[in-house]
Structure formats: C-alpha cells, structure tokens
Amino acid sequence: AVSVLLLAATLGAALPVGGTPARVPAPGASAGLPFDAAVADALRDAFAGSPVQVELSRVDVVAAHPAQRELLAQGRIAVAGSDWIPMEVAALYDVASATASAQRISLQGAQAPRAVDEALVAGLANEATRRLRDEFAGQPATLELAGARAASVADGLVVVDATGRADFGGEGIAAAAVHALYDTRSGRWLRVDYQLGDDGLGDPVAGL
User: Fold this and answer.
1) pLDDT, position 73
2) What are the C-alpha distances in Å from 191 to residues 26, 44, 59, 165?
3) Is the pTM of this model over 0.90?
4) How far is CA 116 from CA 103, 124, 161, 177, 195, in A?
C-alpha cells in the first residue's frame, strides 16, 4: 500500500507496535535519551501551520534497532487553540539525528461517529485529490470518497474518516482510505492522510 500525507511525516501508515515496552527515563536522566522532546517536536511538525501544545506523560521503547527506536507515547495535545485532547502516538526515533517522526496519532475521547454532510465529503475529496496529484505528478489522479463518518474530538475539531477509490485513468484504480482532522471554526483541514491499497481501510474514527 502507498501512504501519502499532508504532513511532513509518515503518519498514515500505522507503525507496527509489538513486544514488551521498556520504560524510558525522562529527559535529563543520566541513562535516557531526549525521546520526550523529539516526540513533542514530531507532533508539532505533524500539524505544521497550526499552533500545537503537547504534554507527554509516558514514552516507551517498543523496539530497538542500531539506527532507530520505535516509540509509543501517551499524553495530551491541543491543536489550533482547541481544548486538551488525550492522545497516543507511535513514532520512529532516528539515533543519528536525535529526531523523531510520528507514524500514527490516535486522538482519544471522541464522541460517537456520525454521518458527514455531502459538502464536507466533497471538500475532503478535493483536498485529498490535490495531495494525490502532487504525489503522482503527471497522472490524472482523482479520488472518489464514500462511506464517510465523523467524530468530534474537541470543541470545533472533527476527525473525518472515509473510504473510496483512487482512479489513475489508464494506470489503474486503487482502494483508498482518507483520515483527516477538520477545524469547523476556521473551515481548515488541519491534517489529511490517505492510504492506497487494502491496508488501513478499517481504521477507527479518531485514529490518525
């Protein structure tokens, strides 16, 4: 499957999380690396263009490799002036650069999913199509969405999930899933992720 995001991080493809987490000392501890700071920076990068506040309560190493660490962090986040939202983030930490990239962000405490009006679905399809064409330049890509649902995660912020298909003209058609965060106050898409192929089509609302 292909995963392409609005953000400067690979957030759509969920990072496989397995094994027994190893508790990471807080930043500044003699035995620890500054994972907390790196994860917080990755979350701010994930919502580039919007003010972001992050508070992390726990960061675990779920897998360690010579050049990378797979992290799972919990805490809360406020985006674009929203209330605090409980969240969990899977991140990939690069040892050489001491930076992290968010692989999956789950916003918790969402209200029950509801139907999405046609105008919002059309707006999401247009935004995702624009990103798709940027990624596959030169191809007549079009994204058609159906089965959209939404859930409020904070005052004014709505997570929208939709499935459909990406049509590349003579190049073929692929199943598609789109996960996005929409600010009803400003009418802005704060984040749009899409996945092509069969992976991720069953991701829950508020799993970004």
Assistant:
1) 95
2) 29, 12, 24, 19
3) no
4) 26, 11, 9, 15, 20
